[in-house]
Every structure is written in C-alpha cells, then in structure tokens.
Design a protein that fits this description.
The chain is of the alpha/beta class. It is 46% helix and 16% strand. The protein contains eleven helices and eight strands. Helix 4 packs parallel to helix 5, helix 7 crosses helix 8 and helix 9 (198-204) packs parallel to helix 11. Bound molecules: orotidine-5'-monophosphate. Orotidine-5'-monophosphate binds next to strand 2, strand 3, strand 8 and helix 10. Residues 4-228 form the Orotidine 5'-phosphate decarboxylase domain. Its EC number is 4.1.1.23. Catalyzes the decarboxylation of orotidine 5'-monophosphate (OMP) to uridine 5'-monophosphate (UMP).
C-alpha cells in the first residue's frame, strides 16, 4: 500500500489555502511550508489538522546542532506528522534534531517522522558542481547524504525520483524516499530540475510523492488529484 500523495499547500494566504481545501476530499496528507507557516504561525498546523488532514511541516531546518535540536523540541509540540531538516547540516545536527523531537513529543502522541533533504529537486548536477563545489554526480551526492541521514537515525530522505532506487539499494525498503518534483505528462517544470511523473515514482521505489502546482494550479484540482493518485497507485 503506497502512502497517499502529499499535496504542497503553497499558498500566500490562509484563506486561499482553505479555499483550495474546500474543493478537495477529506482525509488528505498536505504539506505546510515556509510560505504559510511564517505568516500564520504554529496554529496553522492544528487548524489544518482540525479539517481532518495530516500534515507534513516542511521547514527544512539547517543550523548548528544545538539550535536545531532546541527548535525541534518546540516543533514537536506543534502537532505535525512529519518534519524535516537539511542533511547538509551534518550528522550531529540530524542526531540533535531527533533528540529534540523525541524530548518534545508529548506523551501519548506519536513522534513525527523526521526526514532529511538531500539535494533539492531544483538543483541540477552542473549547478551543484559549480555552486556548491561538490564534484562528481548528483546521484552520488544524494546517496551519500541518504547514508549519512540513515546513520544519524533519520526515518528517510527527500530526494528526486531519479535517485529513489539507488537509495533503496543503499538504505533499504523501509527508509522513506519522499519525492517532490512530480509533474503529470508534459507538465511545466517551473523551477524544478529533476522532475518525474507519479507512475515513474511508483516504479522507482518512492515511498511518498509531494505534488504542488500540478494539483493546486490545475483548472480542476480535485480531478488533478485523482489523476495523480490513480497513476501513483497503478504505477
Ligand atoms: O522538502 C520538500 O518538500 C521539497 C524538497 C525538494 O527537494 N524539492 C521540493 O520541491 N520540495 C517541496 O515540494 C513542493 C514542490 O512543489 P511543486 O513543484 O509545485 O510540485 C514545494 O512545496 C517544495 O518546497
């Protein structure tokens, strides 16, 4: 059973996000990112959950270990089901993030899943080589970050579909491979560099897909969601 698609609620204002949700079925998995969180504060998570959805809170923490650990301790109380950090922050930072999350999760509640971003899906190999000074292939860099994240106790990583099967080989079936950069056939890539279809994601071994504009900017978002879901489930 594949995890249901996660819809990126990338809207500039709460009423737009809720207007979108009004048109959608209940019981979704949605992603609240910086755009909504920074404008509406921590309450946004409970408000979205109050509408019957589960929340991936995507704040991509990346700072010194102590700061991230303490921030995660606070975030654990916000009520999200999944949270993330940047693997580039290093293994000590990831370990402290996990410690903070465990310390902050209220008793009786499940600890949110903690995943690490490897190389953003908006990054191309040539850009990584030139701007980050990381030589070699993008695939090698992503797998390296995935192994580091696995060793630091992360539940999985964010990567593109193109690296999912290599990560399955390196870190196993159960390690989460959360893959954004999803487009329906011939969809506009926008700022993404490593895109794939829901069916490709299913074949490559993604455990989760994150889909934003292909659904949120569709003329009929509910129909676009059903198309994405069907392609992902059928594979
Ligand atoms: O962590 C993420 O969710 C993320 C990581 C990544 O490497 N690439 C990426 O696109 N995302 C997020 O996934 C969503 C993709 O949106 P669309 O390109 O509109 O489908 C955005 O909300 C991004 O913030």
């Amino acid at each position: 059973m594949k995890h249901s698609p996660i819809i990126a609620l990338d809207f500039p204002a709460l009423d737009e996000a809720f207007g979108f949700l009004d048109k959608m079925p209940s019981g979704l998995w949605v992603k609240v990112g910086m755009e909504l969180y920074l404008q509406n504060g921590p309450d946004i998570v409970e408000r979205v959950k109050g509408r019957g959805h589960q929340v991936f809170l995507d704040l991509k923490l990346h700072d010194i270990p102590n700061t991230v650990g303490r921030a995660m301790e606070g975030l654990a109380r916000v009520g999200a089901d999944m949270v993330n950090v940047h693997a580039a922050g290093g293994s000590e930072m990831m370990e402290r993030a996990l410690d903070g999350l465990e310390a902050g999760t209220p008793s009786g509640r499940k600890r949110p899943a903690l995943i690490a971003v490897t190389q953003l899906t908006s990054t191309a190999e040539e850009q990584m080589n030139r701007e980050q000074g990381i030589p070699g292939t993008l695939l090698d860099s992503v797998v390296r970050y995935a192994r580091l994240a696995d060793e630091a106790g992360m539940d999985g990583v964010v990567c593109s579909v193109h690296e999912a099967s290599a990560i399955r080989d390196a870190c196993g079936e159960d390690f989460l491979k959360v893959t954004p950069g999803i487009r329906l056939e011939d969809g506009d890539a926008h700022d993404q560099k490593r895109i794939s279809t829901p069916a490709d994601a299913a074949h490559a071994g993604s455990t989760h897909i994150v889909v934003g504009r292909a659904i949120t900017q569709a003329a009929d978002p509910a129909a676009a969601y059903e198309t994405v879901k069907r392609q992902w489930e059928v594979g």
